[in-house]
């Protein structure tokens, strides 16, 4: 068993009378493929926001590689290797994938102030960018403005931008959401091929993706951890099936992959 790389200890988040995170103690091992699932309103987004530092917990702590990061800003956490996927904003939409990735790679390498020099001046940056374009199946569209890319390719670029920062822990929030069926294969394949030494925490409603990807699943219900375990244990768990009653996807996914 590898060491935990990311942990929460008795995390609690209250919004007025609502407890959106109830005493959650999560442990993500180095290199894990860890999925967080739960019905709508289970508290997945609230938990991720406390991991990234967007939300401060009411009580409890977040620990990255043994270091308490509960009080650190989102940027400081990225610097320590806790990275979530970017939403491509207006600025990035006007850049090409090559330019956007060069910006991300340069910022990791501490060269951001030199980014606006013509590309190619830093051979190391160019090599990193080329590798990411290949890895994320973006090479053919590398020099088109991002806003012209098919939706699935934009989602791939979002993951590539996060990977460009060389995370220790990568938080993937619904990478396949809204992606048309024809483009989903690319997402599944690239997510499956993420570097083995990076721990990946996936939030996803698509149970086929969850069960094809995860080696460990934590189930949240009403802000609390209902259970966790290997995918086959989760798929066979009567409590989990009860929570998903009426949602046959988990039964189907467990039967297919579990
Ligand atoms: N800023 C907020 N203020 C008040 N209540 C909130 C806030 N954010 C979330 N909540 C509440 O906390 C609970 C958990 O919400 P959260 O969005 O974390 O769930 P989720 O599992 O991500 O749901 P979904 O799968 O629908 O995105 C819900 O009851 C929600 O209404």
TrEMBL record:
GO molecular function: ATP binding
SMART domains: AAA
All residue ranges annotated as the ABC transporter domain in the record: 6-247
InterPro entries on file: AAA+_ATPase, ABC_AA/LPS_Transport, ABC_transporter-like_ATP-bd, BCA_ABC_TP_C, P-loop_NTPase
UniProt keyword RNA-binding, yes or no: no
Record key words, sorted: ATP-binding, Cell membrane, Membrane, Nucleotide-binding, Transport
Name of this chain's protein: ABC transporter ATP-binding protein
Native species: Roseateles paludis
């Amino acid at each position: 068993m590898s060491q935990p790389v990311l942990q929460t200890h008795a995390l609690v988040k209250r919004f007025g009378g609502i407890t959106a995170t109830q005493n959650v103690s999560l442990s993500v091992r180095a290199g894990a493929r860890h999925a967080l699932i739960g019905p709508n309103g289970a508290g997945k987004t609230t938990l991720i926001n406390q991991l990234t530092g967007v939300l401060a917990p009411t009580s409890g702590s977040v620990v990255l590689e043994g270091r308490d990061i509960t009080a650190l800003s989102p940027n400081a956490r990225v610097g320590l290797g806790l990275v979530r996927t970017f939403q491509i904003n207006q600025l990035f939409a006007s850049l090409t994938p090559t330019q956007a990735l060069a910006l991300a790679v340069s910022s990791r390498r501490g060269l951001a102030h030199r980014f606006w020099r013509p590309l190619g001046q830093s051979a190391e940056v160019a090599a990193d960018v080329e590798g990411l374009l290949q890895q994320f199946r973006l090479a053919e569209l590398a020099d088109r403005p991002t806003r012209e890319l098919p939706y699935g390719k934009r989602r791939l670029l979002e993951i590539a931008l996060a990977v460009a920062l060389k995370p220790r822990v990568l938080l993937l929030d619904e990478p396949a959401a809204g992606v048309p069926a024809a483009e989903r294969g690319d997402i599944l394949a690239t997510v499956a091929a993420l570097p083995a030494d990076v721990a990946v925490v996936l939030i996803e409603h698509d149970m086929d993706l969850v069960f094809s990807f995860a080696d460990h699943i934590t189930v949240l219900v009403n802000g609390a951890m209902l259970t966790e375990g290997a995918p086959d244990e989760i798929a066979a768990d009567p409590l989990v099936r009860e929570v998903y009653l009426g949602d046959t996807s988990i039964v189907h996914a467990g039967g297919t992959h579990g």
